[in-house]
Amino acid sequence: MKDEKKLTSEESSGLGRRRFMNSAALAGLTLGVAACAEKKSDGAPAAAGSAPAAAGHGGNASHLKPGELDSYYGLWSGGHTGDVRVLGLPSGREILRIPCFNPDALVGWGITNESKKVMGTKADGSLRYTVADTHHVHASYKDGNYDGRYAWVNDKINSRIARIRLDYFVCDKITELPNVQGFHGIFPDKADPVDPKINYTTRVFCGGEFAIPLPNTGTEDSSKYRSLFSCVDAETMEVRWQVLIDGNCDLVATSYDGKLAATNQYNTEMGAKYEDMMSSERDACLFFNVARIEAAVKAGKFKTYGDSKVPVVDGTRDSNKDPKTALTAYVSVPKNPHGVNASPDAKYFICAGKLSPTATVIELAKVLDYFDGKLEAADKAIVAEVELGLGPLHTAFDGRGNAFTTLFLDSQVVKWNVDAAIKFHAGDKSAKYVVDRLDVQYQPGHLNASQSETRAADGKYLAVGCKFSKDRFLPVGPLHPENEQLIDISGDKMVLMADHPVRGEPHDFIIFKRELVKPKQVYNLEDFPLAVKDAKESGVERNGKKVTVRLTSQAPAFSMREFKLKKGDEVTLILTNLDKVEDLTHGFAIPKYNVNFIVNPLETASVSFVADKPGVFWCYCTHFCHALHLEMRTRMIVE
Ligand code: CUK
Ligand code: CUA
Ligand code: CA
After folding, report:
1. Which atom of ligand 2 is least distant from the CA of 555?
2. In this structure, which residues have their CB less than 5 angstroms from ion ligand 3?
C-alpha cells in the first residue's frame, strides 16, 4: 500500500521513469521519494529530491528561498570545456564559469589579447591549443584551511596548469609542464618543510600519468618511457623541479606539515597496454620527501632533458635504496589504486583500491620514520587495508573520524570509520568499520565533503560526481549529463538530498565556506597598463599600417560614435569600461571580424585584427547594460 503511494508521487513529480531502474538503485531512492510525498502534504512546493529528505537527519537543506544565499562555494572542474565552474551549495546553482584553457564566448576568452597571452599563442597569433580536459581543482592553503588566494586546475591533454585568482575569479596564468604527458593529479602544499614561518601554499605538485621517451624522440620501445612528478611555484607559476620516477603518477595528495607529497601509481609495471598495467597484484603509493628533493636540486644533483631547463632529480627505486638519503619511498598498495587523499586530522593518506575492493590507510608519521631510518620497510607505514566494496575510487572526510569512499562498480558511497578500520586491521575482528552505505545514481567517481581536505572539515555536505545519470533527467538523446548528487552527512546515516545535471565531465571539485573568499566588485584602472583612463583620451592613432583605436564605455555609449580605418590596417583596439558599478559590464562585438568580448567595471581589454574587409560595421554592446543597451553602438568604417 505504502509502495503504491510512493509510485504515485513519483509519477506526479515527473519521475515515473525511476521504475525502470535496477532494484539496488531503487532502494537508494526510497528516502528521497518518501520525503517528497511528505513535503507535498505540507502544501509546500514539491521539489524532487530536495531539502525535506534531510529532515530529521541533521536538517541540512538544499532548497533556498528566492534571494537566499548559499553558505558554501563549490569549485568544479569543467572537464572538456576547460573551465572551472563556481557553484553555490547546498543549492547546487551554477553561478559562474571561469574560462581557462578553452575559448569562452561570454567574456571573449581567447579573443582578447590579454586572455590570449595567458592561454599561449603560436607565431601567427592564433591560440596554441583550443581543447582541454580538466580534472582536479584545488585551492591555496594557510594554516591548514583555504586562504582564498588561488585555485589551480590541470589540463590533462596538453599538460598545463592554470591558476585562478580568487579575488576576481579569473584565470591569470597558465604553465605548460615540460617532459610530461597526461598531467593528471594536482595538489598544493600546505606548509613549507624547511621554513616553519611559511604556513601557506608556495608549491603546487603535478603528477605525470603517461610515460614518454626522454627526450621525446618518438622511440617505439616503451621500456624507455618515463613519467615525472613536477613542482610548480605557486607565485611565479614556473616549474621549480621534477622527479624522475619508476612507474607513473595518478592523483596527488600533500601532508599538512609540508614534508610529504604523494601520488598513487597504477602502472608500476610501466606497461604500454592495459593488460600489462594490471599484471602485478600490487602497485604503489609513492612518497616524495620535499625538503630532500630541494636540497638535491640546490646541490646540483640533477639532469635536464631536451630544451627544458627544469632540474630533474632521480627518484627511481634503485637510486633511493638508503632510506636516510632517499628522496622517495614506494609504499606497496593493492592492484591499480586510484585516489589518494589526506585525512583532516593530518595523520593519514588513504589510497583507494580501484581494482582491489580495499582502501589502504598509510600513517604519515611512519613514512617520516622510514625516511629517518627508524622503520625497516616503507610498507610498514600501512596501518590498515580493509575491504569496502567494488571499485573504490576517491575518499572524503567529515572531520569526525569517518571517511567516505566512492564505489564505482557498486554505485555506492560507503561511510567508514578510520580508527575502527585500523583496529580491525590490527586483529580486532569485532571492530565494525563500515558505518553506512548509500546507493547513488550511478557509478560515482570523485566525491568531496564540505571543507573535506582541510583542518576545518565540518561534515555537513557531501557531493558525489556520478558518471551516469541514465533515467534521472529528461532524456535528451544518447548523451546524458552527469549527475552531481548532494548528500547530507551531518547524521550517522547519509541522506540523499538532491540531483543536479552537469555538463560532462567535471571529475573533481572542492567545497568550502563562503567567508573564506573575499571577491572584489570592480577592477582597478591602475592594474591595466593600456587603460584609457578618460573618455577624452579616445581616438585613432596611426603609425603607418599600425593603428591603435582607444575607446571607453559608459552606459549607454561608447566614447566615439564612429572611427575610420583603411583597408589593410593592422588594428589594436583598446576598450576601457569607465562604469564603476559592480556588474555594469559592456560587451563589444564587431560583425564579420570575429570579435566579441566584455569589459567589466574599470576593466581594460584589447583585441588585434587586420581590417581586411571594407565597409561599415556596427560595433555594438553585447551585454545588456541600460535601457539604451540596443542603442549602444559605434560605427567602424573601413575605407
Ligand atoms: S580522476 Cu576522474 S574520477 Cu581524473 Cu580524478 Cu578519479
Ligand atoms: Cu553597454 Cu549593453
Ligand atoms: Ca598495475
Report:
1. 1
2. 266, 283, 336
136 lines ligand 2 (CB under 6 A): no
Instruction: Give me the residue spans of the domains in the chain.
Output: 183-337, 525-638
Host H or E run for residue 368? helix 364-371
The tens digit of pLDDT for each residue in 414-468 reads: 999 999 999 999 999 999 999 999 999 999 999 999 999 999 999 999 999 999 9
Residues 261, 266, 268, 274, CA torsion sign? negative
CA 130 – CA 121 distance, rounded (Å)? 10
Q: What is the DSSP letter of 450?
A: B
Percentage helix, strand, coil for the chain under 3-state DSSP, each rounded to 5: 15, 40, 45
Domain 525-638 has CATH 2.60.40.420: yes
Q: Cα–Cα distances in Å, from 546 out to 10, 562, 566, 573, 588?
A: 66, 18, 10, 11, 21
Cα 483 to Cα 504: distance, rounded to the nearest angstrom = 9
Among all chains, which residue has been given the C-alpha cell 606548509? 191
- Tell me the best of 77, 80, 133, 135 to mutate to test the pocket of ligand 1, counting ligand atoms within 8 Å of each CB and taking the most: 135
Helix or strand holding residue 604 (H, E)? strand 604-610
Residue 629 Cα to ligand 2 middle (Å):
5
DSSP string covering 572-592: EEEEEE---STT--EEEEETT
- Contact 396 CB / ligand 2 (< 6 Å): no
Report the C-alpha gap between 190 and 288 in whole angstroms. 14
pLDDT digits (tens, 9 = 90+) for 203-245: 999 999 999 999 999 999 999 999 999 999 999 999 999 999 9
pLDDT above 90 for 37: no
Residue 239, beta-bridge partner list: 232
Global model pTM greater than 0.70 = yes
Mean pLDDT of the chain: 92
